[in-house]
Structure formats: C-alpha cells, structure tokens
Amino acid sequence: MGALIEDAVIDNETMVERFLRMDRLPHIWCPGCGIGTALRSTIEALADMDIPQEEFAVVSGIGCTARVAGYLKLDSFHTTHGRSIPFATGLKLANPKLKVFVFSGDGDLFAIGGNHFIHAARRNMDLKVICVNNFIYGMTGGQVGCTTPTHSKTSTSPYGNYEPPFNLCFLAAAAGAVYVARWTTFHVRQIKRSVQEAFAKRGFTFIEIISPCPTVFGSRNGFPTGLDMMKYFKANSLTVAGADPRDVEIEMGGKLKVGKFVDNERPSFQDRLSEMWGDLGLEESRIVEAE
Amino acid sequence: MSDQRSVLTGEHFVNGDWACAEGGLAAGCKFFAGYPITPATEIAERMSKRLPEVGGVFIQMEDEIASMNAILGASWGGSKSMTSTSGPGFSLMMENFGLGIMTETPCVLVNVQRGGPSTGLPTLVGQADMMQARWGSHGDYEVIALAPQSPQECFDLTIEAFNLSESYRIPVLVMSDEVVGHMTEKVVVPKPEDIHLVPRRKPSVPPEEFKAFQPREDLVPEMCTAGEGYYVHVTGLTHNERGYPVVTAEAQDRLVRRLVDKIRLNADRIIRVQEENLADADVIVVSYGISARTAKSAVAMARAKGYRVGFLRLITIWPFPEKRIRELARKVSAFVVPEINFGQIAREVERCAGGRARTIAVTHAGGAIHHPGKVLSVIEEAIRVKSGSGLVEETLVLR
Amino acid sequence: MARTEVRVSGFGGQGIILSGYIIGKAAAIFDKKNATMTQAYGPESRGGACSAQVVISEEEINDPEVSAPSVVVAMSQEAFTTFTKDLDPGCTILIDEDLVQPGASRDKLFAIPAMRLAEEMGKKVVANIIMLGFFAGKTDVVSREAMEQAIQSSVPARFAELNLQAFRRGYDLAVAAA
Fold this sequence. Notes:
The structure holds three protein chains of three kinds. By secondary structure, chain B is of the alpha/beta class. Chain B has helices at 16-26, 41-50, 64-76, 87-102, 130-135, 151-168, 178-182, 249-264, 267-270, 289-304, 322-329, 344-353, 372-384, and strands at residues 10-15, 29-34, 57-60, 80-85, 107-115, 121-125, 144-146, 171-177, 184-189, 233-235, 273-276, 283-287, 309-314, 316-318, 334-338, 358-362, 396-397. In chain B, α1 crosses α2 and α3 (64-76) runs parallel beside α4. The longest helix of chain C has 18 residues, at 160-177.
C-alpha cells in the first residue's frame, strides 16, 4: 500500500490531468448534475490504487453518464445503447489482465441493457459496473425510465409515473453480483471506498450512485437545482450496512437506504474456466498475440 | 503463421459449418461468442470444443446482440474474433455490426442463411439476406461479404474474411447458406506454413503521436489494442482522427466518406470472381453460393446443347463487381441470375448492366435449391428471345 | 464412373446419417473421388423419417441433390414408401427384411436381416453397418477397403473392431448371395 501514501499527497490538478482527457473539456453535463461528482470520486479511487493506468479500460453505452468514457484518459469504449456489458465481456476475456469497468446510466444498463446485466452477473464476469442512477432519461430530455420512482413526473409520464421502479441493488444481488453497494453523490468518500473495494474483488461488482438531474428530473419534481436534490439526499439517506437488498427499494419521500449490501465470494467466470481447463489438461487462455 | 494445434492439416469429410469454424481457427481466431440458431449452431459447437484446445475462449452469450458486441470488445482486447448466426440472429446483430463498421473493428460474422422472413424455415435453405448484409444496419457504409459454395470454401473464405478484416479494419461477412453449411464434402486443410495470414496492423508511432482513426495512404488506420498505453477512445459517434466525438456535418463527411472510400477505392483488390467461358458468351449466368453450383450444372447442359453460355460466380458479393458486369453487359444479350430469393443480386446486376443487356432473375422463395433443369430452361429462353421482354414463367424479369 | 446417387433412409436413431457419411467419406477420402452428403434436418432427425443423400462422381459435383438414385437403402417402412416411388428400374433397393414389407416383388430388391444379425452380435446399433457391408458387397459404388477405412476413422476407437466385424458380416452375406 506504499502507493497510497504517495498518492495521498498528489494535488487535485495532477490527479485530474492524469485521468481526464483535458483536450476534451469542457464536458457536456448540466450545472448541478451529479455525474461529474461520481466521476470525480471514481478517479480518486483509481488514482489511489496500485494499478498501472494502462491496465484500466472503461466501457460505456449511451446516455449522459455514458459520456464518461469520452473524458477518461484510459482505453475507453463508448458503445451502443445498452451494450457496454457484452462489449466489456469480450474485452476482458480477450485480455484478462485488463481491469475493465463499465460506467453507464440506469436506462442504459437496466432497460435496454437489462438482459446483458443479469447474465454478466450470473456468470460472475470480472467486470466492475458503476451505474449513475438519476431516475430518468436525461440526454433525450427527461422521459420515464425503469428506475423512475412511482408518481414522479417526466416528459412521458406527465401525470406521474404509474409503474414501479426496479430496485437495482436487489436485481444485482439476485442475479449473482458478489459486491453490491449504493451511495448518493453526497457520499463522495464512500463512493471512492466502494470503487476500491470493487476493484479488489474478482467477479461481478455493482455500485449504484444516486445522482441529481436537476434539469429534467428535479425541475419537474420539486428540486429545481442540484443543490436541492443534494439536500434531499443528505436529509433522507440512511446508511444501512449489510441491509437485505430486498428492503432497499426507492420511494420519493421515504428513506433512501445506502451502504454496502452484498460482499461475498464465489468463483468468477475466469476462475471457472481456469479450473476446468486445468482439469482437462488444457492451457489457460491468454490470448494477446505477440505479433 | 498459425500454430499446429489450430490447423488440422489433412483431408476431412466434413460439413460447411465445421469448415467455417476450422477456417476461423486456422486464421488465428481466439475468441468466439455466439448464440444457438439453426443452421449455424454447428459452428458454435465446433468452436466450443476447439477453442479451449488452442488457448482461446468460447462464450455462449445471452443473445446475438451480445454476441456481436462481445466479438468487437475481444477484437479491441487483441484477439481475432468471430461469431456465427442465421437470419433472425443476423437481424439482431445488425445494430452492432454497425458499431463495428463505425469503430473499424476487425472481426468475422458468418451467416448461414435459411429461409425468411422472420422465423421462416429454420432448417431449410435461403439466400435472402444478401441485401440485409449490404444495408442491414442503419446509416451509409460499405461492407465486405463473401459467399462460399462448398465446405472447402467455407474453410478458405473464412480465412480470407479474417485477412480482409485485418487489411481493411472492418467486420467481414461470410454469407453461407443452409445447404453449404450442412453439406458434407471433402475439405483439404493445408499445412500451417501454407496458410497466408494478414496480421493486425499495429501502430507505427509512439502512443503520444498515435491516432487510432488517422488513415494511412490506403485509407485504413493502424490499430492499437487496449492495455498498451495508447489510451484510445473508441465511439460509435461520428469522430475525428483521434477518436473524439465531433458532431458536425464536416466531421461526418470526413469520416463516413472515408469508411465508404476505403472499400470502394480498394474494391479491385478485394473482389474475387470465378469466370468460365465468357469469351464467346451470348448469355452469362451470374450466381453465388449454393445456387452457383446448380447453375453451373445448367451451364454445362446448355453448352452441351451448343449454346454460348458463360458462367460468372461471385465469390465476393460486396463490394459488388460492378466494373466487370458493366464490361460484360456490352458483349452479351442477357444475364441469367439464379439465387434463392426474389432477385436481390439480380437487381444489382441489372443496375450495372445499365440497359445494355437484359437481366433475368431465376427466383426461388427458399426451402430448396434451384433445379438445374429450371435454370437451363431460363437460359434457353434467354438465348431464344434476344430482345424485348422475354418472360420466363416463375421468374422476375427485371428488364 | 459417372455420377452415382445413393440414398440411405430409415428413422432417427438408426444411424442413417452416419451410414451416408461413411459412404461419402469412403468415396471422397479413400477412393479419391468426389462425394457430397446432404441430409434432411429438423424434427425428423429425432425419430421421424430420416434420409441421407450421397452423390459420388469422378467429376466435379455441382448438384448435391439426389434425384435419380442408383441405390436406395430403406430401413423403415415409411422410408421405403417415401423413397422408392418413381425409381429408375435399374435402381438397387436394400431393405431390412424385418422392418420393411416391400409388397410387390421387383428386380434388384434385396432383403437383408440387418437388425436380426446385429442383435445376434449383441449390438442392435450396428445394424446400419451390416447394411453398409451388404451395400459394399452388392454394388461397386465404393471399394471395400475404402469403406473399412471410413468406418474405422468415423466411429469411436473402442467400437472400431465391432463395427468392422458388422461390416464384414454384411459384406460376406452379399457375396454369398451373389
């Protein structure tokens, strides 16, 4: 952990310049948006880990959060809507040395990409999924999604959402993720710690970061600014370490349970492959060609 | 060069699907992601057995959308990668086939065509995905698609597909069909040293100078691999040479024009056809895949009767051999185009013939291959009726 | 030799496709001719009528369809009914005598107790190989040596001897019947 001590004194600017494509700034996110905060905490986590920068690879889908891949100075892949996880699966299996993480939004990962998410979790694919959940489709102007709280107003639920939302942490846990945590963008230190914990594990991990979207969610639901939503998160979030993921559904006006809900061990996809191929007397797959 | 375990040198009596899988392995494929679908399943089955033996990875994904994405990811991870499917799965793959085109990601997709539309004829032959191969993903682009007519060509053309995909940084389609895929025939697998392979064109400049979408003279960029410190950015958005999104008409023109031109301007290098008896031909039979085999029987029958009939087999379907068809159209009275669809490639032939020669599509809805006798009767009709609208029953006369 | 077409038919589970495969492989790999083998796929491959079509020729084979077979092997009544209609009078028909009632007698029809002989050998599954032995002994489509090599290289090594015995059983029967 020697690197920790050294990195602890790195000043902000150096860290940011190390991990961001400065030539791509300014970013596209709205004032008060929480994605930058989630990204910032993630970068702090990456900077404080003893892993060479070139070993990280980030994959995203489509949406506001998915644009993160375009700002991170890593090998970064901005794929099609919902497809970050299968793309990341191929990337990781072709070069198992890579530390592959997926950084994308709730609509991308759980509506259009929901099937890929549950199967990667089932396989315990060695992917670190970070999902910014802002309850809405932001980039297209604020439509209802699979995470929009019941009764919330959006451009396609003008009278209020009449569907129940997914409890993402429960879904991840049920599908087989070995690490599941939820924080809000108010919990910057906790996000950093969770990201580091996730990277320290083998297998499929999931971190949900509840984030304000004042422009298209907050404005329609009584939180005109990002600060209003942050205050709401601060006032209503309740850390329940080890909470049963079934009990952490989100309701506006209710308590927003956060914390680390799942942290267990089971063989990852790669572990099972190695084990089986060992048993069969086959070489373990290591594909990067020395062409 | 491929290693020994990847190349089963010798003579085998095997089907086309087996040969596609072995062709991929011989080309150095080390990653296969797929989803079961008749009549392509045998390719996945063969890969699931063989890839672990050669240090590769097989994964059965949750659907064809995921399969296509996974092979793109694997390609950027440094593996030669491949998937296989048939009609319904081909439709699902189109979304990220487009991502592969836009991100210039080498990989190979085999479509063992069956009868459609929709679920259609799962176990029976079709050749009706030829236009989907060309235009199936949204937007404008060029593709490379090859059509094997035998298990031997399934082997050979899958290797060729990998080579083309690396040469032009593009996903390449192998458009097989149910009969070729399921037909068992002799396949000769050469020695590894006799198999020509095109390696990935790696960056020739250090990471700080490297641009993953900066074309070289032939319009194709070099390609880095994740994990090497290039910090590449890859996006399906319109992007600049650096890979950064630039959403403007100018950037669009620069990028998409190059994606199109890198195939169009290299078309002569890519296109392969087989020609027989064209010199004296009055009528030319143009066909591909399994239909070319039955058509060839018909051509032999016609020539035995003294008719001056030539044979042009399309090995490369896309880019289409326009130049050659245009030249030939000046010399012949008609093209006869048997295919197991309602005239998809016949329309291309007709377009290139440009009014100089008639094009007669010998159509078939699918489920069986053409009977050589029927093709012969259309040839005879084409010979007999030199001009005007020589209608032949059950065929679509384009001109 | 000009184009020769062979159809092997029966029901799923009788090793019909394997039989077609062995004939094709014998011709293509060991007799150094050209051969194609095609088969009907689908639900029929799991219990219904089942057929393998083999085309053998010294020339390039362009049409893999069997339309005028020289030999039809029928190992079920349904296959017999389906595949012996409109045959060329010169076509040789081989049937399993316990599984097929041929009705009217005809030339070049041979009834072989393949299933019964296989049971005698203690392995019902080799009935198809006994039939192949008879096929090889009765016709000159493929050579005996090529068939034996094809069998040896197509069945699991531990069953090779059993299958070769079955093949010879059928072959000897054909030669004796001649």
